[in-house]
């Protein structure tokens, strides 16, 4: 049973529990997250030209991100399993040519949000890019994974400060 005063992941004895969202209304919920993989220009060139020996790196990473969003509750403790209505993962070369920008947009109609699903999609997409390219560039870095926007639910709209955002992946 949750501690009095609202939603918490701790019960009255201080033990971790999954929050009971049964009484929360189902609303349309969306979340957008972004991240990036920084790499050598030569690595980016191989990806964009289709020259990686493992095949279409961007297509595989996109599918991995979508699959990860759908499995978030299996990966993140105390995260609710959600029926997702949409998952989109976009990848694009960064404007400065230093790597790949990733953006995931996730939607559902339900009693809890999809921020973790969007963040998980970006993270697994980035890890897949690294895995598929590590043979030619072990110095790649994964970074700046962050929530950009969310809507729906009791807390309403969240939009990251525009000055803090990187260019959108296209």
Automatic annotation (TrEMBL):
Q: Which UniProt keywords apply?
A: Lyase, Molybdenum cofactor biosynthesis
Tell me the route in metabolism or biology where this protein functions.
Answer: Cofactor biosynthesis; molybdopterin biosynthesis
| GO biological process: one example | Mo-molybdopterin cofactor biosynthetic process
Q: Name residues in a coiled coil.
A: none
Does Coiled coil show up as a keyword for this record?
no
SUPFAM superfamilies according to UniProt: Molybdenum cofactor biosynthesis protein C, MoaC
Q: Which Gene3D superfamilies match?
A: Molybdopterin cofactor biosynthesis C (MoaC) domain
Pfam entry (one): MoaC
Chain sites annotated for binding substrate: 78-80, 116-117
GO molecular function annotations of the record: cyclic pyranopterin monophosphate synthase activity
- Give the EC number(s) under which this enzyme is classified: 4.6.1.17
**Transmembrane stretches, start-end:** none
Catalytic reactions of this protein: (8S)-3',8-cyclo-7,8-dihydroguanosine 5'-triphosphate = cyclic pyranopterin phosphate + diphosphate
> What region holds the Molybdopterin cofactor biosynthesis C (MoaC) domain?
18-153
HAMAP family reported in the protein's UniProt record? MoaC_B (MF_01224_B)
Q: Could you tell me what this protein does?
A: Catalyzes the conversion of (8S)-3',8-cyclo-7,8-dihydroguanosine 5'-triphosphate to cyclic pyranopterin monophosphate (cPMP).
Subunit info?
A: Homohexamer; trimer of dimers.
User: Which PANTHER family does the protein's record reference?
Assistant: CYCLIC PYRANOPTERIN MONOPHOSPHATE SYNTHASE (PTHR22960:SF29), MOLYBDOPTERIN COFACTOR SYNTHESIS PROTEIN A (PTHR22960)
What name has this protein been given in UniProt?
A: Cyclic pyranopterin monophosphate synthase
The species is Gluconacetobacter takamatsuzukensis
Q: Quote the gene name from the UniProt entry.
A: moaC
